[in-house]
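Next comes the chain:
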Amino acid sequence: MIELIQAADDNGERLQAHLPAEEDTEALGRTLASTLRPGLQIWLQGNLGMGKTTLTRGVLRGLGYAGRVKSPTYTLIEPYVVSRLDLYHFDFYRFNSPEEYLDAGLDEYFAGQGVCLVEWPEKAVPYLPSPDLEVSLSPAADGRIAVIRSNTEAGQTCAIELVRALRGTDPAPGPI
């Protein structure tokens, strides 16, 4: 069960949740899916095995995707068309330098209306556009801690809806 630890004044700038099990990480992703809007860029941060792809699987399940969800570690990108929404799952783990982002020609994905979920974004900075939301996953004694920060107005709207959905106080809108 997801435990909302902190939601800074309900303004959506920063929230923190305890995720005791892998299923809770996926459940957070399903809840996050209900808040997504076209064009959002979300950075997924955390060490290997922290649940970045599990969270992405939850997002996709929340949008109605029933197929296999894999990490794009070797392909760089896994595109999905779900609920009238283009979702692009990126993984830059294998980048040796930020210039590889430019060489891969990925700019067009970040300029459109698709939702971009990016694992290992720090490996493409300074070329990667700034995120609307940052989701950091870290270990806890009994599971994981997710810290979500909004960096833009669109990200803040998404985070506020996420807090409301997690609290059950105001149902978030359904999938797009």
Q: What stands out?
A: Confidence is low (pLDDT under 50) at residues 170-176. The two ends are 25 Å apart (CA to CA).
